[in-house]
Write a structure and sequence with these properties.
Blueprint: H1 2-22, H2 33-36, E1 75-78, E2 83-92, E3 98-105, E4 114-119, E5 123-124, E6 135-137, H3 141-145, E7 158-159
Length: 172
C-alpha cells in the first residue's frame, strides 16, 4: 500500500514541476490547487482531429450501369459487321482529352496481329449494353489493313473516318 501511495505522490510532484516549468518565469503561482487540479477537457471522442493540411473530400459522381461501360478489350466491328479486332489502349493528349483508340487488328488469337490507331470520333458506342456487345468503327477492313502499325514512343498515325482529327500540338 505504501508503494502505491509513493507512486501517486511521485506522479503529483512530476505534474507539479511540469506545470511550474511551463509557466513564465515572472508569473507567480496561483495557488496549491493549480498543480493538482485536473484540466477540464472534453472527452477525446468529441474532439475532432483533423490534420492542418487535410485534403477536402473528393467529389462523387454516380453513373448508372446502363449509362457507361468500359471499352478496353471490347470487340470492334465495321459497319458491315466485319471483325476489326479489340480495343487494347486509349490514346489521350497532354491535356487528358481522348484522341484515339488502339485496336489489336488482324491475326488469329493474337498471333500475327498488329496495333492500329483509329480516331475516337470514328467509333460508335450505341450498342454496348453488356460485355458481349461490340463497338462499331466507321472504317472498312481494307482501310484499317492499309494503316501503319502503332508502336509506342514513335509518332502516332491516327486513322480517321472523316479526317476531322487535328494533329497533336507539340507542348514545350
Amino acid at each position: 500500500m505504501r508503494a502505491i501511495q509513493a507512486l501517486i505522490l511521485g506522479i503529483a510532484v512530476v505534474a507539479s514541476q511540469t506545470v511550474d516549468s511551463s509557466r513564465a518565469a515572472d508569473e507567480p503561482p496561483t495557488g496549491p490547487s493549480e498543480a493538482t487540479a485536473p484540466a477540464t477537457q472534453p472527452p477525446a471522442s468529441t474532439v475532432p482531429v483533423t490534420p492542418k493540411d487535410a485534403a477536402p473530400p473528393p467529389s462523387v459522381t454516380i453513373i448508372g450501369a446502363s449509362e457507361a461501360h468500359g471499352v478496353l478489350g471490347r470487340d470492334v466491328r465495321s459497319a458491315a459487321g466485319e471483325d476489326m479486332g479489340r480495343i487494347v489502349d486509349v490514346v489521350v493528349d497532354r491535356g487528358g482529352h481522348v484522341r484515339a483508340a488502339a485496336i489489336d487488328f488482324g491475326g488469329f488469337l493474337g498471333v500475327g496481329s498488329r496495333k492500329i490507331v483509329v480516331d475516337w470520333n470514328a467509333l460508335r458506342f450505341g450498342k454496348i449494353a453488356n460485355k458481349k456487345d461490340s463497338i462499331t468503327l466507321e472504317l472498312t477492313k481494307a482501310q484499317v489493313a492499309a494503316a501503319p502499325e502503332y508502336k509506342e514512343d514513335t509518332p502516332i498515325v491516327v486513322l480517321g473516318a472523316s479526317g476531322s482529327l487535328q494533329p497533336l500540338q507539340a507542348i514545350q
